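Lab notebook, bench 4. Continuing the backlog of folding jobs that were queued last week. Each job is logged with the same field layout so the records can be merged later without manual cleanup. Today's entry covers Homoserine O-acetyltransferase, a 309-residue chain. Filled in by technician R.K.

JOB TYPE: sequence-to-structure
TARGET: Homoserine O-acetyltransferase
LENGTH: 309
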Amino acid sequence: MPVTVPHDLPARAILEAEKIFVMSDERAAHQDIRPMRIAILNLMPTKITTETQLLRLLSNSPLQIEITLLHMASHVSRTTSSEHLEAFYSTFDDVAGQYFDGMIITGAPIERLDFEDVDYWPEMTRILDWTATNVQSTLHVCWSAQAALYRHYGVGKHEVPQKISGVFAHRLTGARSPILTGFDDDFLAPHSRHTDVNVGDVEATDEVEVLAVSDDAGLYLAATTDGRRVFVTGHPEYDAGTLAAEFLRDSAQDASIPVPANYFPGDDRGAAPRNRWRGHGHLLYANWLNHCVYQETPFEPARPEVDQA
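JOB STATUS: finished
OUTPUT FIELD FOLLOWS
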């Protein structure tokens, strides 16, 4: 089934060229079906690239999905045109009274800042708190995973001596969760961050289960037992060349930035990287849509029943 997006969204043409079924919002209006409503709070500077990456993963499902793109009202983007944001994005205030079946909050290259020093942190806390009553399941990626763990459970982050960048091997912890359905015991996924959280601190919450870890990259996947909050510290949505582009950007400013680990074939930065995590990324997002969103959300688009305590 298709992902429903605005007719002129740049990602639509890219995905259609890949033979991915994307439906315009005009055509979707004539469908007699209740689509899953998914909000994407896009904090990444390369918003069009991130839109495309996430929509590609969300399309790998039999569900019809209606996408709402969100950006921060309290932050001025320097890398995405105001025309693009005005045409395709809403702000939190525009949707605060609505209910969404699922929400994805992306990462952002600001992890070295203390949370309270981020210019949009007050707005971010409003959104994180709002998800408890207005979203059935929220998928937090990279920086937003750390931000949500901090906001909801008081789990802090710490800066690592060297940026965690590359493609790393992960293993399942043995915890049982529907989101792990079909996972290999060992799998690969990319990371790109300067900070980390301690696995023990996450386990100590007694509310969040650690589902997958890496010996080299630390925590990767965690979730509450009810699936309403999912935390992914890596970037399974990345294309083959995304880490290379980030490395070129960062190394132009800091020559000490390490080459992404286990990424370039033969560690030759001139060689074209190969995507070795695509299958895992599609499975993770499909499982989240099915087990955490579709199987749990009420049919009527009203607020879910949650424990207000």
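OBSERVATION: Confidence is low (pLDDT under 50) at residues 304-309.
SIGNED: R.K.
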